[in-house]
Amino acid sequence: MNTLDNTLTEPLSGRPAFLRGWRAWAVGGAALLLVWFLFFRGGKKDAGPNPAGRPVPVAVAQARKGDMAVHLTGLGTVTALNNVTVRSRVDGQLVRVAFTEGQMVREGDLLAEIDSRPFRVQLMQAEGQFAKDQAAAQNAQADLRRLEGLVKQGIISRQQLDTQTSSVAQYEAALKSDQAQVENAKLNLTYSRITAPISGRVGLRLVDVGNMVRASDANGLATIAPVQPINVVFAIPADNIQKVLSQSAKGAKLPVEAWDRDLKSRLASGSLAAIDNQVDTATGTVRLKAIFANEDRILFPNQFVNAQLLVDTLKGVVIIPTAAIQRGPQGAFVYAVKPDATVELRVIEPQGTDGDSTAIAKGLSGGETIVVDGLEKLRPGSKVALPKASGGKG
């Protein structure tokens, strides 16, 4: 029994020593792994901005010196100077349409005709009544002259003469009323021929021949919109309105260009005509109106265009692509390429931007090479791989 007890207790007494040795080796191995990890991790961190590393492929451009126009661009709508709905001024049956849809017409051109026979009859009636009353008035005047002679001879009383004088005045008033009826009938006869009130382009016909038209019809026969000249109404940010006002105060006629939606094709050139008197609080913009001669009629009412307003021209400035400019705690900066194909961070002071170009007031000189693409991989002192010249080998 004692032998069995010793056999069972010997492994139990030796096991804690074995575990203590294993734990010591595990701690030592973990410490070595930690030292190895920190050593190589620190080495990689320091190797990032190494100027002597592999060259970074980039795209570059040259800063140039010259004049740069500063534009303000806003989405605009082409609008006609005035838009007229052609309506009939009398009631009647439409017997003729004298225009073609989309036709250019001049003021006074015949557009349509209404059956004029009822108006001719009205004119004849008015002229007949006028002739009848005119004859009666002439007879009353003859009677008045005879009575005046009899009064002088004392044959009749003065009262009879006054009564006849009043009758003559009534006939003269009736003649004026008849004359008004004649002129009204003539006017209605004129209105049976519908002419263009303004010059411009006629829209789609709204009434066909044979229909009855009335002066109270809301839609009318067609619309006319003048297209020469024509307006463009566009909006610019309210923050830029002072630039426009300062130029307008000098009496300058600010040029405006109309471009297509993609800003690839210039449609027309005009000038600023008016500035709105308030800021649209919903959009933070101010509306402007430009006028265009539109001689080639390329601008069309309600067409959307991009309006570019020239507000200033910067003389003799350094111009670079806007894509090259980066922002950081030190402000705006670019990466300038040195002769040894390394880059340096150059803090700049932008003066104005126009589309894809930016004028630089300080920090760059004309002719310097700057990086415009691949900027995210650069650090000051990094080597760069410049693109090969066009037509070069390789």
> Structural class from helices and strands?
alpha+beta
Estimated helix fraction: 25-40%
Order of strands, widest sheet: 3-12-15-14-13-16
CATH architecture of the largest domain: Beta Barrel
Describe the structure.
The protein is α+β, with helices and mostly antiparallel strands. It folds into four domains: 47 residues; 82 residues, conserved putative lor/sdh protein from methanococcus maripaludis s2 fold, CATH 2.40.420; 99 residues, Efflux pump adaptor protein, beta barrel domain (Elongation Factor Tu (Ef-tu), domain 3, Beta Barrel), CATH 2.40.30; 141 residues, RNA polymerase II/Efflux pump adaptor protein, barrel-sandwich hybrid domain (OB fold (Dihydrolipoamide Acetyltransferase, E2P)), CATH 2.40.50. The protein is built from four helices and 23 strands. The strands form six sheets. Strands 3-12-15-14-13-16 form a six-stranded antiparallel β-barrel. The chain has a four-stranded antiparallel sheet with strand order 4-11-9-6, with no helix packed on it. β17 and β18 form a beta hairpin. α2 packs antiparallel against α3. The longest helix has 46 residues. The radius of gyration is 47 Å and the shape is rod-shaped. The N terminus and C terminus are likely disordered.
Short description:
This protein has 394 residues and is an alpha+beta fold. The protein has 4 helices and 23 strands.
In terms of topology, how is this protein built?
Elements: H1 2-47, E1 56-57, E2 59-62, E3 64-79, E4 84-86, E5 92-97, E6 104-105, E7 110-114, H2 117-153, H3 158-191, E8 193-195, E9 200-202, E10 212-213, E11 222-225, E12 230-237, H4 241-249, E13 255-259, E14 266-275, E15 285-292, E16 304-321, E17 326-328, E18 331-337, E19 343-347, E20 349-354, E21 357-362, E22 369-373, E23 384-385
Parallel strand pairs: 1-23
Antiparallel strand pairs: 2-22, 3-12, 3-16, 4-11, 5-7, 5-10, 6-9, 7-8, 9-11, 12-15, 13-14, 13-16, 14-15, 16-21, 17-18, 18-19, 20-21
Helix pairs in contact: 2-3
